[in-house]
User: Fold these one by one.
Assistant:
Number 1:
Amino acid sequence: MLMVRYVASKFFYMLVSLFILISATFFLMKAIPGNPFMSEKAVPPQIRERLMEQYGLNKPVIEQYGQYLKNIAQGNFGISMKMQNKEVTELITDTFGASLKLGLIAIVVSVIVGVLLGLVAALYHRKLIDNIAMVLAVLGIAVPSFVIAAMLQFVFAQKAGWFHVSGFSGPLDYVLPVVALSAQPIAFIARLTRSSMLEVLHADYIKTARAKGLNWFTILFRHVVRNGILPVVTYLGPMTANIITGSVVIEQIFGIGGLGKVFVTSISNRDYTLIMGVTIFYGIILMLARFLTDIAYVFVDPRIKLNNGKEG
Amino acid sequence: MKKRSIVLLTLILALSTILAACGDKKEAGSTEGTATTKLAADQTFHINLASEPPTLDPAQSQDNVSSSIIRTLFEGLTNKDKDGNITPGVAEKWEPSADGKEYTFTLRSDAKWSNGDPVTAKDFEYAWKRVLDPKTQPAPPYAYQLYYIKNAQAYNEGKAKVEDVGVKAVDDKTLKVSLENATPYWLGLTSFTTYYPVNEKVVANAKWATSPDSLVGNGPFKLSTWTTGQTLEVSKNDKYWDNKNITLTKITASIVDSAATEVSSYKSGQLDLAGQPIGEIPTDQIASLKSEIPNELTIKGIASTYYYLFNVTEKPFNNLKIRQAFTKAINRQALIDNVTLGNQIPAFGLVPPGIKGIKDEFRKENPDSAYGKEDANEAKALLAEGLKEEGLDKLPKITLIYNTNDNHKKAALAIGDMWKQTLGAEVTVQNQEWGVFLQNRRNLNYQVARAGFGADYNDPMTFIDLFTSTSGNNDTGFKNAEYDKLVKEAYSNSDNNVRNEAMKKAEDLLIKQNQVILPIYYYTNIQLVKPYVKDVVIDYGGQLDVTHVKLLEH
């Protein structure tokens, strides 16, 4: 019962945030000067007016807002104003595939490599291997992903010729963008895992377990890893959302036709319907990630109790 | 969001330049000297598009990327050869009437659509009327390219009926066109995308031009793949009437909007062609490319002008002498040699080289040296006089605006500095996001603003009519009855001598007598082409035509 209420309230807040997001984006977007039909070569006024009329842009903003809310309530996100006769939903599904594939692979790689690196560093605390792992982690956090991307591209694609410089057609094309994209999360996860493992390793119940003469591997995987991985789980939600929605620059460098690129160009094009569509889509992903993390938390961490805010 | 990614991109560009500069030079040698005259077995041509084509419907196209692709998929009544001469396309021959106001086109009988239908005169009549139809959705922005046709503008504005429009298919093979005026350059427009035919049967489907399954064209190629944001591919159209003269079997275009990535891809061999007009080469790499692969870097003048606009309605640029002082105070060649780096040509006029005049190019017949020259001392004297006329004791602060772009920024900083050096002007350069910039310019909410214009057709009029008092492109506040009269005279007259004389007078009025704009340079097209690629055509205006490209063995 408590669980249902907890989930329902989280869900309700999600809807409210989504509504605020839609309204704020809509009015901010309309406040930027310009329209989808501007160009250095002026379109004759009568043609521009006809275009504005055809897309309903000649009406007062508040009326356009009402109309838009009505449309999306019916699941109609409209057609792009710049990419002729393409549905917004179609453009999103066409391009999100690439971002999603790239993002998911990067997440899996980050978690596996990050946790392993952190674990090894914790087990060999203050030894050479720990130091190496942590220097790598600091580098990974400090060097921005686009610098890593440009370097990888130059060394391994342009000079060595092992990979394509740009494009996203074969499995080999995934390697460089995934490395560039996961460097930072790997570093972060490794540090997170290491510090929480160290904490767990010195906990009393581990000492007890060892004293009982339990097999070291059982201790490691039953108790140490399971408890030590908690912070990583909490980080997973926001990280997933960030990677999937935030690969714009990497997509740009490697010429991957993902949603990020579409989003950025839609704004400079004042492609109103597309801006709204992608914003809502990204908004939902970010909120869902948050929502799922909140719920996962309850299951993973028994210390969170749902007794009306009085958490134990 | 936008701003941040621009900052990031700038950094990437900067970084990749540094990295590229460290690269070893051996690579350049390996691509040289292997060219033979034998054709390569694989005739797939690899290019890059810097942006997704917004449309592949000829009626809607108004940008270089979409028109470059549309040119492979469709064919108009006429074509242009590599020297810009008009050659037969779907029309076998044509006959102008004695007064030059009517044209009769005879279509070839073997022209076919990619679905096998014959291309008829009705297809042209339908396509042109479709562009002009006020009910067409979305309203074709380039409809005004058809306004030369009798009653076209009136129909487009809802003031005339469709049957009054001066285009008529007499029979399947004969198309009669009546014009408003005997416009001498009109025939050349029939090779322009807005004049391409469309197949009525397929156009009923609103999304016809978005997918390979439904796009039917009459050009040398047909659309075979289009994945949003990834690739666009066209392959040879066997139904094309002249397909024996088409060598390429496929053109594959990646869609990547990072200039640095494009050059990297080119160097790694992924692309056969890079750069303008469909892509871009970062300015900071031009110098290293010039030394690394000089035989692959091609720079060609195109009919476009880069200039600054003065807001003539506000102090201090309401004063002619101050405008002249600012125009004379800059050193264009130094700017080109050190900043823009693309071998551009210093400009003193509005009409660029490459545009036809009476017998030769307009610019050769009317050299822009007549409009004055750079002279720091004269600039200082003019400034002093101008300030006195305005009753000012010193020059107010000047703000120069440009739209966010690295090249515009560099040019603006250099020019601002030149003004400071020679005139002691206090100059702030300010970048504005594209939409904001255009709005400010249109509302005359500026002092000096960047501008650029490329030819729509091969006649000085494409530039001259920008500055009439009713032009939507005249963002200067300049209104001059005499100028309007001269433009009107050139519009309505069919005698090319009279027209050119009027346009020359108009340009003189605009620049020498009023200095409404500050011409900076005439653009060049900067491109990288592999040595084994033959017959890439860049026309006078910088339009790309790759339909007749051949790839040699390499």
Number 2:
Amino acid sequence: MHELAVTESILEIALRHAPSREPVRIIGLYLVIGQLSSIVDDSIQFYWDIISEGTLAQGALLHFRRIPAEMSCQNCGNRYAPSEQALACPRCSSVQIQLVTGDEFYLESIEVEG
Amino acid sequence: MSQRIPVIEKILSANDRLAQKNRALLDNNGVFAMNLMASPGAGKTSLIEKTVQALKDRLQLAVIDGDVATSLDADRAAAAGAVAVQVNTGGECHLDAVMLSQALPQIDLKTTDLLIVENVGNLICPSGFQLGTHKSILIASIPEGDDKPYKYPGMYRGVDALVINKIDLLPYVPFDMDYFRRGVEALNPGLVTFPLSCRTSEGLPAWINWVLAQTIQASGA
């Protein structure tokens, strides 16, 4: 989905957090993406190579950390990985469940040199 | 020497900040706003027509229509009796807070009670972008199939109410309502749901009453 807008946003955040002293180069970005965030790594990489050109972050490597989805059952306390066809708790069949992890989408850190 | 600098910033934080501004602008003018999302053809525009027709004597209504290219939907909303503003997204698959902030000045917010935002027909992208509206509404429809909650969990998880449109087609298509509702319940327990048909108007009054009550509660209309 809309990876171009997303990639532009990533660049904007990275540049804003780079130290203002010169010369400095951003050589790596560490991104955290939950399993349920519909983001395609390859598309971001593709746009990144184009839109980072001519900026402090040109050529920076993108590192993706994927976080699997985990649900928590409010009824029996079970923690489990949801499957596509069975979201309810596999132990007690309750649907009183909460997402614990899986919808993350943030820039965790940047690596700079110089 | 290289150095790691912690950031911890949500990628869409710029959009989220602008969405908060939109919300403040709406609140300051006593406008209750809904974000209508659905796949193409689920009946967003039909539901808006029915809602506007039913409420135009009680409330001052405005509609902002997100569409990739045409103004067909905004024209229908205007014909039904609402102030309608068209936002062409120029190919974008969703509305975002920027687009809404550009459309809001075209409406007289001071006199508006209810603003309906019709998002681009899509079950993935719109769920990722807050607009600043008060309630997110998803319109599902019978012919889409009963597996949609399982295939688009992000959309079903994030909404405040669900309309199930085209229930008049239930006798003609294989749609297991129990299976569908189990999926919805797993993703969004206790979600308020309105099965209805825009064509026959069956089930429509419950939806209209809910919208009216929400608007009165929020805007004091």
